[in-house]
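Sequence in, structure out.
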Amino acid sequence: MAKSRTSPRPEGHDGWDDYAPFYDWENARTLGRRDLPFWRTVARQVGGTVLELGCGTGRLSIPLARAGVPVVGIDRSEPMLIRARRRAARTRLTAGLRLVRGDIRFLPFADATRRTAPFAMVLAPYGMLQSLLRDRDLMATLAAAHRVLEPGGTLGIELVADLPAWAEYKKRVSLSGWRGRTGGARVSLVESVRQDRLRRLTIFDQEFTERRGRSKAVRTFSLAFRTLSVPQMVRRLEKSGFEISALLGDYKGRAWDTRADVWVILAKKPVVVSR
């Protein structure tokens, strides 16, 4: 049994290395790529290079690159990036994608004001920023995104709306099915959910069991997410120097409201006009 070590106070990056072998399997059964057409349209309209924060296994980065959008994907998890590189190789993607291991709070790219490595868009999809469990980490990430965006560039954020309302439960079989084709494994997910209302945290205790014939492997880990409301996130974006350009409630452009199932925020780095 492989078991991840987590600190008594969870960190946003805890668990993601262990999650890597199961990430694509689970997401194929949940979100899939429903958000891809929306972000592909936005990226094409923006033009230029897109930086995806927390690119993981390349769920969005690779299809965007295949669609002709230059993409740089950054992630802290090397096991996630290994899978992204393998996926890119399988799709014979040889150009338009660069994968970097790094911390999104301290982006390893030159300032856009120097015009050496500006990004036209920074993308934080599918609750990526909710993995930042402290306000100082969120503000550091927003400052880093602002720094590497070219003037007039776009920051795209999606928050997973239902996390704070997720019912608490223990040891529930959430998913089960086959992974892989010929010679694949039978995978099941037993999940517990905890809510820490004081710190706005939703914590998923995960137990993945993988069976191949008579052999069985179990991997346990926890994933923690911190959810701010859209108005709270807007205030932090404005404090970080962004101007809000759109608040959306679905992937078709409907305006956001408190009942929306999807929370999408588009913001701009203002163009400073010299006098």
